[in-house]
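User: I'm new to structure prediction. If I give you an amino acid sequence, what do you actually give back? Let's try with this one:
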Amino acid sequence: MSLPFVPNFALTSTLVVVGGAYFVYRALTRKHVPSHLPPGPPPLPFVGNLHQMPTSNQIEGFRDMAKIYGDVVYVRIFRQPMVIIDSLQAARDLLDKRSSIYSDRPRFVLFSELMGWHSASTHVRYGPRFRKHRRFMNAMFNSRAVSAFRPLQQKERITVMEGLLISPNAFLNHFRRFAAAMILKITYGHDVHSNDDHFIHLAERAATLTVQSGSPAATLVDFFPALRHIPTWAPFSNFKRKALETREAVEAMMEVPYAVVKSEMKTGIAVPSYTSALLESRADPLDGSVNPEDEEDIRGSAGTLYAGMSSSPYSPSAFLHTFVLAMVLNPDVLKKAQEEMDRVIGTHRLPTMEDRESLPYFDCVLKEVLRWNPLVPLGMPHRLMEDDCYRDFFIPKGSTILVNIYSILQDCANPGSFYPERYLEDESLPDPKTIIFGFGRRICPGRFLADSSVYMTLAALTALFDISPARDSEGKPMVPVVEYAEGFVRHPKPFRCSIKPRSERVLTLVKEAKAESTTTM
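Assistant: Good question. You get back a string of structure tokens that encode the predicted 3D arrangement of the chain. For your 521 residues, that looks like this:
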């Protein structure tokens, strides 16, 4: 008869201790995965928070949500999760530090399928093709490379100054022409001679229709993809007809100037440009052909630059327009900036980029313009590519991420006041230029060109012209009301003002600068 098993109590005790220590170690070192979502307004069944989403003045509506729920707010539109970020810290933590999973764009069903924006770098999904587009653009528009465009910037800003001398009331047209002329010359080698230029009309039509169509993420078809199959003749299909019209405009904007460059290259008359340089670099040495995928990427990245700089969302014209409004409303600021200009530059020449460090107050004025009215107040939406944890929150894969840039830049003392000195008095304030162009790997590739172009033009405008309210028939000043057009870009609504040369010497200065720029081009 065998004896029953008698355990080795020393061995058992050791195993218990080791096993317990192991589980304690796992409990202490295991990454905590929160199970709850970021705070947000309570949703309704099926529609989620649709009924609580602001339909107008979204930046203020989202800011009000943040005051209640914090700087990371979660909402759900039908089944689509959305996170609204309301602090610079959270935006940096997620979109900059975790850019590898926050650099996608939301899936805009109708726009992606009908508009052909799959080829444009602004909208292309994150991956190898996106990185390829960025390599194309960064090579030409990095902080060092943009200095090569200085002669062109000088030439075009003089054209703006001439326009303001001849027809100051058409200042907005001069600004639009300036933005379009810069990028058309760089991207396609095309010279713009007037506001009636065909390429300018193509870009403005595409931008206008896109804004009128609304944000792609706001269309019902993005929440119910099956709606894309509705025929255009069916009831309630106006959204699809509008998208088809917008598609035609966008395709024309991207295809027409590109086709011109290709045609000119065949005949040997093409002017050096971004597009021609890329086509030449990718051409087969035997027959000159370009791989179809490379050609599509060149066409798409060129179209993105063309649309972005000439129309929206980062157009210099919006910045110039807002600057004029700010100076009309704040004459003391303009006078102080002019006094600094006169003290540093004198009256015998125009300011240059080399003068920037010597004009600290004027630089603060430009920062305050961007803070006062950020051009793209909600930025461009991002999409989370995999589940993530932040603080004690769980953020699900596929969430649309919006950053309330407007609210972030309002986080300062007396945000409603136009006060450039705040940047001299408080060095902890972030430079708006490091925020308005986006975050992470989706930051605007043309930001250095846009910044230097705007700086040179507004420095000349400040040095040469006085800006004040227009006057009515009785000579009384007509102070404009601060109003902005709803849309992706916050353009001021049209207003009247007076733009006059500061002295008789302005005409001479402009002529001298024009002659000098002609010899250097």
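You can read the tokens as a compact description of the fold. Here is one thing that stands out. The two ends are 109 Å apart (CA to CA).
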